[in-house]
Design goal:
The chain is mostly beta strands and 372 residues long. 13% of the residues lie in helices and 42% in strands.
Length: 372
């Protein structure tokens, strides 16, 4: 009943809003490893060669339930002359089963039928976003892995052992002080990662060995210059230690971790397409009543900015995320509490009273439906 009421409100809200974009639909069959794709296969459409997702669908779920095996339909809004590309389980398409592997330029043709897609699953040690894209069925620490790495000190992204769960030694450093009235000890985790050589126009990826403590798994960036001995340091910290003027705090959410990420050997202006892959324990999400879809990486630079953050995959212990950032700084991993029906009604009221923007309301509606 609540959803019916909210849907009516949303319909009334959108009735007066016009959009310049047009609807487009692609549909056909998906093949994985030469066979019709199993339910749960993820189809995504990207804009103009970027990582901006225009539309997605999950084979066999939602409106695709009950359709023939491997069938997908993706609808999205786009503009004429936009160029779109496709991925299945975040894998690049291969030429098989009538697949069209070229990017498509949108035009007057709205419906694209028999647009078949084909991919092969990745072997262990290959970078991944979704477990369903791995032959092993495990995408752990951003790599196809032999298992879910259930131990607290096990990781699948250890250099030299990519794709195999490996025990990681603690790299924590402790500092303490004591005085006449007593003492205190604090423990932080710090890792310095080195890129020995990078060529101009190339992309480098550094991988932590203690992602269980740091949260960060990999950091990726493209360099506009050739450089040697580039070092990236990831340090667990606090808002006070990082000297930020305002700590993130809200009754609607919680902070999982503060981090400082710095670099030497390269200038920020020489870096682009910087991505940070991190993970959050499901135990923390559950104990703080945090909706996994609201987790985000926030960057501090004269104030906090929420970065574009997306879920890559999840397993029994963690939810894995990726975030785009314009550079390094102090970061906070945060999440918001699940939204109730009454919270959403309050947000709608706030919108009509001018206290929040239209886009704030859309975010609240999206969060409500994701949490149901």
């Amino acid at each position: 009943m609540n959803k019916i009421y909210v849907s009516a409100l949303i319909f009334a809200l959108f009735a007066s809003v016009s959009f310049a974009a047009s609807p487009y639909f692609f549909r056909g069959y998906v093949h994985v490893d030469g066979s019709l794709a199993p339910n749960g296969t993820i189809v995504e459409i990207f804009l103009n060669g970027t990582n901006s997702v225009l539309g997605s669908a999950v084979v066999g779920e939602g409106t695709l339930g009950g359709t023939p095996q491997g069938w997908y339909t993706v609808g999205f809004e786009g503009n004429s002359e936009n160029t779109v590309s496709f991925r299945v389980n975040n894998l690049s398409l291969i030429v098989a089963n009538g697949t069209n592997v070229t990017a498509q330029t949108l035009g007057s043709n709205i419906i694209h039928d028999s647009f078949n897609l084909s991919v092969n699953k990745s072997s262990n040690g290959v970078a991944c976003l979704y477990a369903i894209g791995c032959s092993s069925g495990f995408c752990t620490d951003s790599y196809c892995c032999n298992s879910a790495c259930g131990g607290a000190s096990e990781d699948c992204n250890v250099a030299g052992s990519l794709g195999t769960c490996t025990s990681t030694a603690t790299t924590s450093t402790s500092t303490g002080s004591s005085g006449g009235g007593g003492g205190s000890t604090s423990t932080t985790t710090t890792e310095t990662l080195t890129v020995a050589n990078i060529n101009a126009g190339s992309t480098a990826t550094v991988t932590t060995t203690n992602s269980a403590s740091l949260g960060v798994e990999t950091i990726q960036f493209t360099s506009s210059v050739s450089a040697t001995n580039v070092q990236v340091t990831v340090k667990e910290t606090t808002a006070t230690a990082a000297s930020v003027s305002v700590a993130i705090s809200s009754s609607d959410g919680a902070v999982y971790k503060y981090l400082e990420i710095t670099k030497t050997g390269i200038q920020t202006s020489q870096m682009s397409s910087v991505k940070i892959n991190f993970k959050v324990p499901k135990s923390w999400l559950a104990s703080n009543n945090i909706d996994k879809n609201t987790v985000s990486l926030n960057r501090y630079s004269d104030g906090w900015t929420k970065l574009a953050t997306t879920i890559r995959s999840e397993d029994a212990n963690y939810v894995y995320y990726t975030a785009d950032t314009p550079g390094f700084s102090t970061f906070a991993i945060t999440g918001q509490k699940s939204t109730s029906f009454f919270d959403l009604i309050s947000k709608i009221d706030d919108y009509y009273k001018g206290r929040i923007t239209f886009f704030d309301l859309i975010s609240a509606i999206d969060l409500y439906y994701k949490s149901q």
